[in-house]
Amino acid sequence: MSLAPENLPATAGPTLPDCLRHWADTDGDRPAVTFTDFATDRAGRRRTLTWKQLKDRVDAVASALPVRTGDRVAILCPQSADYVVAFLGAITAGAIAVPLFDPGLPGHAGRLAAVLTDCSPTAVITTAAAEDAVREFLAGLPGGEHVTVVAADKAGPVRAWPAPAPAPDDVAYLQYTSGSTRSPAGVVLTHENVLANVRQAVHGLGIAPTGTTVSWLPLFHDMGLVLGLITPLAMGMRSVLMDPLAFIERPVRWLELLGDHNGSWSAAPNFAFHYAASRVREEDRAKLRLDRVAAIVNGAEPINPGVLDRFHETFAEVGYTPDKTRPAYGLAEATVFVTTGPGVPPRVTTFDRAALGAGTARPSDDGLKLVACGVPVGQRVALVDPETGVALKDGSIGEIWVHGPNVGTGYWQKPLESTETFGARLTGDHGELPTGPWLRTGDLGVRYDGEVYIAGRIKDLLIVDGRNHYPQDVEATAASADRDIRPGSVAAFAVEGTDTEAAVVVAEHRGHSALTTEDERALAVAIRRLVSDAHGLALRDVVLVPAGLVPRTSSGKIARSACRDRYLAGDYGKALVR
C-alpha cells in the first residue's frame, strides 16, 4: 500500500532553508520554537523564538562559518533552542550538518570521537558555556586543533556573504546510526529525502499544521530531529522542546507540556510509555489535560502490548484514549518514518511461537503478542527472503526492505556497505514491485492482514537447536520473573555452544546490592523456568547485574552485541547458575 508523492501534503519549500525563509517572510511574528528549561527553573522557564527571530539567528551563525559547500559542520550543542539554530545555520551556510551532542553526555565520548573522525568536520557549532569543553575534546583528536569552533548563542550580526542556494538533491545532513548492531555509520540524507519523509509522516499520522509538537527526544536522534524539529519547520508548526534529562527526572513534565497545547503531538520509544505510567504520581496525574493531545507516536524500539495497556489505563481519567497512540516503525536509513497505524486503538495479534520460529505468522489463542505497526505511506515495503532476495507472500517472516524517496543515498564514505544496504534488488517474480534499488533494513517482520508487524533484527536472532527465537520476546519473559527487573533492562543474546548456539540472559535488578547469593540463585532458576516454559529454550547462563550495566545505544536501545562482548570478556564476573 502506498500513496504517490503528488497526493501527499506540500511542505513550505523544496529545501530546509527555503522552509525557514517562507515562514519568516509570511508569519514572522508567530512562535516557532520554545525550549522549556527545567535546569534553571523547576517549573520550566520557557524561551521562545519567533520565525523571524529564528531566521535572524540562523543567518548570523551561517555567516560566521568559514565553510564551503559540502563541508561538514558538527553540532555539539546541549539540547536547547541553540541546537535548532546551530543545525539550521550549518545547512543555511551550504555545509552538511552532522547532528551530534556535547562532550558532556555521559558514556558516549568514544562514539563522539569515532563519529567526528569519520566525518572530518571543518567546523563545530556549540554554545558559549560548552565551548571550552568542546575545544578540549577536539584537541584530543587527530587534526582537531584545526577545527573552527562557533558558539551559536554569541554569533555576531549577519555579515555580507554569498548565501548558497541549495538544490533538493543536495546533502542536508548526516544522520549517524545508533550502533545497536554495528559501529555508527553516517546516513547521507538530502533535502528531498527529508522533506519527502515529512510529507509521508504528516499524511500517515494525520498531523494538522495548526498543531504543536512536543518533544524531549535528543535532537541528534533521528526521531527527535525529524519529528521534533524538521516536521514543524516544514509545516509551519510550533515546536516545544525540553531536555531528555528533564523527562527522566520527572516524566510528568512531558505530559504537562502536551496538555498545554491543543492538538499537540509527540513521539517516544516504548520505554517512555512504561516510565511515565510507572513514575507519574496520582496527584500530578489528576492535573493533566491529555484530552488535548492529538497523537503520540510509539516507535524506535519494540513495542510491548502490556506497556500500552498500562499507559492507556493510567491516563484514561485525564482524557487519553488508546486511539491517540500510533505504533510506528522506522530507521535512520529511511530518514526515520516507514509505517504507522491509523487513528484507531493499537492492534495486537497473538501469534503461535512455534510457527513464527519456522517463519510463518499464524494466529493463536496463546503465544507471542505483537503490535501492528501499520502501513507505509508514499513508499514501498516488501518482506523478502534475505538469502535469495525473493519477495515473500503475506504471512511469511522475512527481512523488511524499503523503497521510496525518503531512503537515504548511502553511508558516508562507505561505498561497499552502501551498495550492500541501499542497493538491494529483488529476484524472481515480484509482481508490481520495482526490482530495485531497495534498502535492506536488517529487521525481520511480517505483513499480516494488511499491516506490518516487527519480529526483531536478523543479527540479534537467537537460533538454538534449529529454532528461531526473538530476543525481545525472551527478554520480556525474563523481566516478568521479578518486579525489580525493569522491562527494557534485559539483554538476550547467543554465544557459541558445544554443538549449536546457546542463549544467555543478562538482567538488571534494581535491588541487586541487597540480594543474597541464595536470592540470586533462586531468581536465576525462576528465569530459566519461565523461559523454558514459554519458549522451549534452555538458557546456558543467567546473569543478574546492578541497574545501569546493560549497555545501550545513544538512543536508549539495548545494545545486545555490546552486552555479549562484555559477557564474553568477563566484565560481569562468573555467573551463579550455568
Automatic annotation (TrEMBL):
Keywords: Fatty acid metabolism, Ligase, Lipid metabolism. One of its GO terms (biological process) is fatty acid biosynthetic process. GO terms for molecular function: adenylyltransferase activity; ligase activity. One of its GO terms (cellular component) is plasma membrane. Gene3D superfamilies: 3.30.300.30, N-terminal domain of ligase-like. Belongs to the ATP-dependent AMP-binding enzyme family. This is Long-chain-fatty-acid-AMP ligase FadD26. The lineage of its organism: Bacteria, Bacillati, Actinomycetota, Actinomycetes, Pseudonocardiales. The gene is fadD26a.
